[in-house]
Queue: 3 jobs
Job 1
Amino acid sequence: MHVIILGGGVVGVTSAYYLARAGHQVTVLERQPGAGLETSFANAGQVSPGYAAPWAAPGIPIKALKWLMMRHRPLVLWPRLEPRLYAWLTRMLANCTEEAYQRNKGRMVRLAEYSRDALRDLRAETGIAYDHREKGTLQLFRTRKQLDHVGDDTRVLDAYGVPYTVLDPAGCIAAEPALAAVRDVFVGGLRLPGDETGDAHLFTQRLAALCEGLGVTFHYGTAIARLHHAGDRVTAVETADGGLLRADAYVAALGSYTPALLRPLGIALPVYPVKGYSLTLPITDAAAAPVSTVMDETYKVAITRLGDRIRVGGTAELAGFSSALRLPRRETLARSVQDLFPAGGDLDRASFWTGLRPMTPDGTPIVGGTRVGNLFTNTGHGTLGWTMACGSGRLLADLVSGRPPEIGRDDLALDRYAA
Ligand SMILES: Cc1cc2nc3c(=O)[nH]c(=O)nc-3n(C[C@H](O)[C@H](O)[C@H](O)COP(=O)(O)OP(=O)(O)OC[C@H]3O[C@@H](n4cnc5c(N)ncnc54)[C@H](O)[C@@H]3O)c2cc1C
């Protein structure tokens, strides 16, 4: 079967890999000059099934109001006259019940754990290297109140069988020795040893090269204008220069831009762009840098070691498709890394970046078929697209191939919203 994948981010490229491995002829269309140059470019680098949880959780509406008031706020809402934003927010708030949280969390953990295992298999199969480490995640608490509430998190981890350790300051320093220099800043932490880290962009580029070795064709610099369809079939992809490309099946993996492409086909995808920012600093003193990922719970900022760099990522900004680099967000990221790893890297030589997380209101991506018979989606991965990419790609390849998937998939496709 010939399959065209729309979008060459980490999700599109992992889809291409598993489809090629399943024996299909695969073509990837991507508007950028290479793979993984939009949201997959400079994310926080966490492969974190331990943190696979929806943002929509009980208590979030109240917490969100508090976050909006903070100087270094993790959440920013730009008042906009945009009905799609308010429709999305309404659906997200509807998911803030205990029942919805448990349902959504269960789906996300299932896919994220499958994905981490798929990534390990892929590494063993290909030998791919991407500045990765398997050293877990440390969520760091600056206040006693945060530490006192750790039971809320560990109950959920217990329920899903995710290994963890609650640490006192000495335990945090044993896991992340550079924290010894700032031992007054924090009171404890929660360590998730099963998590991994790595550079999603490096991974995507190297996997794209491996895909080419498997016969996958990449058309870079190719903007997709629209899909042509007849009855319940997509018949062609029209590119911005008017060219038409045809295949037997099509996979929409355009991140936050997927809904606009599918809307003319009568398919409403509840995916909204949630903007985030990152800083990447060269390491100046390896002993003063993080070993793995440290999550600064106060600012909701993740600080990750990626080879000879420190990546600092965070902020959820609801601002449509704006790609403006806003300096207050930079200050928050800088503040967090300066507090925790003051001598680790050189902030004066940091690069500042922004990307749009393709978020669904229930936090779970949308992987599976649509009511258009030969059109599939693999999008909506939100905060965890790097974590879930391999599992989503492998699941998608099984669905396109008509093979029984290795995990439950009924509640991962778009039709869960109809229910
Ligand atoms: C600050 C930040 C930190 C994050 N940290 C983490 C983390 O630590 N761990 C984690 O798991 N996830 C993290 N994420 C989320 C993760 O980066 C995303 O979920 C993931 O990159 C989404 O991948 P994607 O392939 O779906 O989208 P993208 O990478 O955006 O890929 C979509 C592709 O489609 C292309 N495209 C779009 N429209 C068109 C068109 N019309 N024609 C042709 N091509 C088109 C784009 O150029 C793009 O390359 C973070 C995100 C941000 C912003």
Job 2
Amino acid sequence: MSEQCTNHMEYMPGMEVLESDVMDQVISDMHAYDYNKYTAEDVRRALNHDYRTLEDFAALLSPAGGEFLEEMARLAKEETRKHFGNSVYMFTPLYIANYCENYCIYCGFNCHNKIRRAKLNSEEIEKEMQAIAKTGLEEILILTGESRKMSDVKYIGESCKIARKYFKLVGLEVYPMNSDEYEYLHKCGADFVTVFQETYNSDKYETLHLAGHKRIFPYRLNAQERALKGGMRGVGFAALLGLDDFRKDAFATGMHAYLLQRKYPHAEIAFSCPRLRPIINNDKINPKDVHEPQLLQVMTAYRLFMPFASITISTRECERFRDNVIGLTATKISAGVSTGIGSHVEEAEDKGDDQFEIADTRSVDEVYEAIKSKGLQPVMNDYVYV
Ligand code: SF4
């Protein structure tokens, strides 16, 4: 396959090149991050600070930090309460297409996996959105596989326009694009852009992303900055924990968000914390173990380092874990989730295969009740357009 020879650090034609030093800073600090050097004393010092520095963040993510999980969780809960009160935000993702031109070896949607491919047309998207809106949700996350050919920017823009009719907040998790394209999608109604970097270790990244535009590491890493330049209100960050050294990846994710927050103070920052899940037609992926305590450590470290950031807990995690982290460190939870194409309208045929298996299949009502039962307040939206 000729594409496999593409240099993953070289931009492809048409990809916007930003004058930005954010990537270089993130990568060099991540490589320099020696988590084994941190001691219990470093962690205690970090916990005692009112505002935590990057060095504190590094200590909290270290193995030494793992010994203080209970204390980290207690303080994270305080910070969450301070910045978000009782609120837990609810949303649902809608997959509108699963065509993908990339070859990510860990993903069921990859271009070499023989799955049912599908793409919803405008009418189908509207029906799906109507069905979702009926559940009371006011925020939607629109997802596609990464195919510019099958899901071009105009198609995504039209979906945003439809979404704006039914929802107050529209997020996007689609392929990275140039800032003028983000500007267009913002005009169509999108507020947020999330891009998973997967891993910040570019050598590892190269071995996991064998073909397609996603292979180009720096173009992906600079997507959030291009989205902010395009006028998006907020950006989301994530490493897929388990692909590589999760401590380094979590450190790089936090640092990436922190540097962009400093450069664009108005930006709303969000973290997602996905771990690898089993996918169809692939039993060869062997995730590096990130168990629940490690995941909790990462989530609490994000909260203590950037207390005002939104943290989403996805349905990749089980009901028990999700219910335990809301209000503690997570502030946003998805509900009524399907990762297939066209699955919210009961009479409609489910057209495309799912991207990954989900562990929490509860409906919107069930998640709503679960939030309330913990003495928290389910919130559909807190943003008003005037
Ligand atoms: S992770 Fe995203 S880009 Fe990669 S194969 Fe899956 S859908 Fe495509």
Job 3
Amino acid sequence: MKHGILLVGCGRMGSALLVGWIERGFDPKAIVVVEPSQAPLGVQGVLDESNIPADFKPDVVLLAVKPQLMDAVLPPYARFADHAVFLSIAAGRTLASFERILGPTAAVVRSMPNTPAAVGRGITVACANRMATSLQKARTEELLSAVGEVAWVADESQIDAVTAVSGSGPAYVFFLAEALAKAGEKAGLAPDLAAKLASATVAGSGELLYRAGSPPKVLRENVTSPGGTTAAALAVLMAESGGLQDLMDRAVEAAANRSRELAS
Ligand SMILES: NC(=O)c1ccc[n+]([C@@H]2O[C@H](COP(=O)([O-])OP(=O)(O)OC[C@H]3O[C@@H](n4cnc5c(N)ncnc54)[C@H](OP(=O)(O)O)[C@@H]3O)[C@@H](O)[C@H]2O)c1
């Protein structure tokens, strides 16, 4: 098998990737999924590593199990290290942690996707070790791009900041919708209506940002008339001290610090 994909773990993120590959026309016969708890749709699924067909030679082993399981799950897959690239999406698992188990000559790509991958609109940042060839990097990018955009960093330490911005970022945006709804209630709206307005505004603005392809600053300026209502709100949100930038700086710093603490 020249282009076989071995997907290890088919939970939320693994199944989002699998759906993306099938939708993009990848050959289902070239995919084997190892997943103990649920049968994957449309491809060959096995319950554990020992049931992988002997003649299946993946060119990519995609590791999509929980980070804390990786040390226990990974060792038997080291047998693929002579010809496959290992692509991990596990948060906090460093390239060195894979090399320790797979050996120093294993090709490894560490990546950090985010939850909009579930609707094909994620962004994943990837970082390769020295053993990964440019062809292998291109192949891993092809697989990751099935669920959204892909960017690369050469310096693995940047993954902490990436985690803090795009990995954890969707939660900040969801919280923005919650906070906007609460503020709407305080301004006199019924809770249901406030929640509906806030969620639709965040979702619609995200879609507009995506489709317009303009920087967010331009879109913001386009909807802000001097002396108007939006300008009044932005004067509060954009205050030099105690404004949203201040809070966001602290939030991202806290997440990046936590990412460094959790890395193994
Ligand atoms: N979800 C996200 O938004 C997100 C974002 C960035 C990174 N990630 C990373 O993606 C990885 C998967 O996360 P997830 O949210 O998709 O988790 P998940 O839904 O729990 O999926 C993990 C899957 O792996 C299965 N599994 C457990 N042991 C296994 C084994 N020995 N061999 C093969 N499969 C096994 C689990 O089955 P059981 O349920 O039976 O245990 C589960 O179906 C994690 O490392 C996480 O850090 C996720």
